[in-house]
Design goal:
Layout: H1 2-5, H2 8-24, H3 53-56, E1 68-70, H4 71-88, H5 96-110, E2 121-123, E3 128-130, E4 133-134, H6 135-152, H7 155-172, E5 173-174, E6 179-180, E7 183-184, E8 190-192, H8 203-222
Antiparallel strand pairs: 1-2, 2-3, 4-7, 5-6, 7-8
Helix pairs in contact: 2-4, 4-5, 4-6, 6-7, 6-8
Length: 223
């Protein structure tokens, strides 16, 4: 909102929001986002709803939400935090450790270093539980890992970006129509090869590729 309005009140609200979730909604030890908290920001079991993407998606049943985390959401949160910092002109140093924790958790537990791509869900302080590859997580981590490399100059993040991009370009994108398939198994075979369903939107995929093209262009200029 601040980027659109330029109003100081929106800048203050933006910074307050960034402070809130970096202090209270991310586990400072494991580096992953918490599913749900009470009014005092104490972690509580997440509410399971029947009418959600989780409940209606194809593939394996959703993991028990109490102690799970989404690698896609965590990496997405890292790059969106950085975007908010840049938009608001905030000092980045207080937030960089949290951004790095989110990225490191996903690199360690979410990236499939054998078959490539990013897993769907995992235990907050342990390994991946659901090792299918879904369109939106793989789209968001392309931006997030590339943004992490640009922010921290850590080669592990660029390695993760190349890993996921190879999987996406080889298996997930239907190049004939120019859109991501919905859900693949770990090896890249389609579970749901449709490019659309009642929940799927182009927000993740098209925007991710546009963001990555801009990031790559900046790196090319910098080098």
């Amino acid at each position: 909102m601040f980027a659109a309005s330029g109003l100081e009140i929106h800048r203050r609200k933006l910074e307050a929001q960034v402070q809130l979730f970096t202090r209270h909604l991310i586990n400072p030890v494991t580096g992953c986002g918490r599913n749900q908290v009470d009014l005092d920001f104490n972690p509580i079991p997440a509410i399971a709803l029947n009418r959600t993407w989780n409940a209606e998606r194809a593939g394996d049943a959703p993991a028990v939400p109490t102690d799970t985390t989404s690698y896609g959401h965590n990496v997405e949160l890292s790059w969106l935090t950085n975007l908010a910092i840049q938009a608001g002109g905030f000092t980045p140093e207080p937030y960089k450790p949290v951004m790095k924790l989110l990225l490191d958790h996903a690199v360690q537990h979410g990236v499939d270093w054998e078959f490539r791509g990013i897993f769907r869900d995992g235990i907050a302080d342990g390994e991946a539980l659901i090792k299918e590859k879904e369109f939106w997580q793989n789209a968001e981590v392309l931006v997030g890992f590339h943004d992490g490399y640009e922010s921290f100059e850590d080669e592990h993040y660029f390695d993760a970006f190349e890993n996921v991009w190879t999987f996406v370009n080889t298996h997930m994108i239907n190049h004939t129509v120019g859109e991501f398939r919905t859900l693949l198994n770990r090896e890249g075979q389609p579970i749901d090869a449709n490019i659309s369903n009642p929940w799927k939107v182009a927000y993740h995929t098209g925007r991710a590729l546009l963001e990555c093209s801009q990031l790559l262009a900046r790196l090319k200029v910098a080098k």
